[in-house]
Automatic annotation (TrEMBL):
Lineage summary: Bacteria, Bacillati, Actinomycetota, Actinomycetes, Mycobacteriales
Domain called AMP-binding enzyme C-terminal: residue spans: 544-623
Source species of the chain: Rhodococcoides kroppenstedtii
Key word Magnesium present: yes
Family note: Belongs to the ATP-dependent AMP-binding enzyme family.
Binding site for CoA: R203, R204, G205, K206, T322, N346, S536
Protein known as: Acetyl-coenzyme A synthetase
Amino acid sequence: MTETVTGGDAAAATTDTTESEHPVSYAPSEEFVRQANAGKELYRAAEQDRLAFWAEQANRLHWHTPFEKVLDWSDAPVAKWFVGGELNVAYNCVDRHVHEGRGDQVAIHWEGEPGDSRDLTYSDLLAEVSRAANAFTDLGLVAGDRVAIYMPMVPEAIVSMLACARLGLTHSVVFAGFSSSALRSRIDDAQAKLVVTTDGQWRRGKAAPLKESVDEAVDGAESIEHVLVVRRTEIDTPWTEGRDLWWHETVGQASAEHEAQPFDSEHPLFILYTSGTTGKPKGIIHTSGGYLTQTAYTHHYVFDHKQGQDVYWCTADIGWVTGHSYIVYGPLANGATQVVYEGTPNSPDEHRHWNIVEKYGVTIYYTAPTLVRTFMKWGREIPDAHDLSSIRLLGSVGEPINPEAWRWFRDVVGGGTAPIVDTWWQTETGAIMVSPLPGVTHTKPGSAQTPLPGISAKIVDDDAKPLGPGGNGYLVLDEPWPSMLRGIWGDMERYKDTYWSRYATEGWYFAGDGARFDDDGDLWVLGRVDDVMNVSGHRISTSEVESALVSHHGVAEAAVVGASDETTGQGIVAFVILRGGVENTGDELIAELKAQVSKEISPIAKPRQITVVPELPKTRSGKIMRRLLRDVAEGRDLGDTSTLVDPAVFDAISQANAK
Ligand code: 6R9
């Protein structure tokens, strides 16, 4: 099972006909190997002395005060990395490049959805970030304060994040597709003093209001002192004098001179909320030195990034961790030139991404499997109509990529030669953990393959027994890593309980993913083992959607499951019981319930299907049997129903579902 095919050389393709018609793995081309940043020796160096290896990676950064110790794990599971070191994250991402003579290099090729565009060099970025830092200071913000950022993909969003980093303010970016109530709960949880937003956002050629949602969210929110508004769409915007400020009148008027102060390596850089197994999102805390070290290190090696040569594009939104680590911090720490695109991939038409690749000569393209599957659905003639020969490396993140999509991605977008890095990581891990290294790894469709040098992962069973090739169990991280989360904002008990209690004796981090090793020892991530769904790469908890549904006056109880979906990975399917006396108005009620979920959480959490049922299947201990509901949702025969209180419940559910 070790047949490989050499990139670009069809004659070298070896076919394993017993398993499938496709090669099992793909070797990098010799040309790629020759120029690759990574070599096998990277693994050896990390194995020899893990902490010395990380110290070396940390020295990619500029430290105002050098660190004295690499790791302090004495207060586990809260780590301290690069102890005693002081740095400024924004200085590392911006100033340093200007000081080292890269001021005129483009940092961001920004592409607006309606067709406008803007290039920001590192000097431009320094001026903008300095202005924003001065304006934030004038608003009375001091290191340690929290700032909420609720913005579409405009340059000012990145500038705001960097200005926070520069001042030691902790940012909490909230995806602009989230509802005002989701924004409100995040503002309250972090006690944010400032919200940065835009008047509106462009979506498929239309300007949709955004500031209005902020108004709703901050109404009565006591921590909020100001709302800072970037003019993007020029639509009419409601205004509260004294509280609301225009960006161009404040940041625009501020001085472009600002000297960055150093902060402790463990100074909190940001909070990012992610879904957990309960209805309340968790505020994941990341700090400075370790986080920046690992994002810069992984961006350099995993993407084989060459400063001054590559044009890098990560298609994520800054509302997710991928945007934080692989649009803002990793690439900018490495002095990258990157594309940032504001809109959807089919605006004005399905050629948009490929037009952008051609326009800027994108060399590295990092996206999500759900988008690859969407491109497949649209048809290969669309990318085929473009010259994509600049692309030399492809990346995937967010969910397992099915081998069919992987091959299509490599053949159609990667010209049949580009290595694909399938990167496994999480909001909590902060940076990539398991991934092929391009130029070293023989890549294998569907497998994330190997923990990166410096990272240690295991697959273990319920009893903490480590499994070898062929083993199928839970993914754990058995050694601390620099960009690991440092806790859950305001709830350290939940931090310990969620990640560290499952294998408390061993002291391992429980990732919540199932995984297996194949016979070659390559790692395959199988998906969540908890009640977290993965819809288009977005984590949404079943209980979050359930609580949005039961907040509707007509709903007594709700059960939500993730059913497999060809395009989005999983789709949300809900079963609801109505309150006594509430009339089932059919489509009208369903539409109302879907709207309720959009409003409470976000349109991305809207169920694909909602079925009104007379009862929900429960175990004798009162737990909803989601496994059985999933069977119904995916149209399978029901398995074992013997643990149910009333197996007859299912006839009624299946009937309702079939309607
Ligand atoms: C970066 C990010 C994390 C969850 C994670 C897992 C899934 C991410 C994956 C993958 C298989 C990959 N996941 N990358 N599964 N292969 N390459 O997505 O963070 O939003 O926190 O999601 O996503 O289930 O546990 P986050």
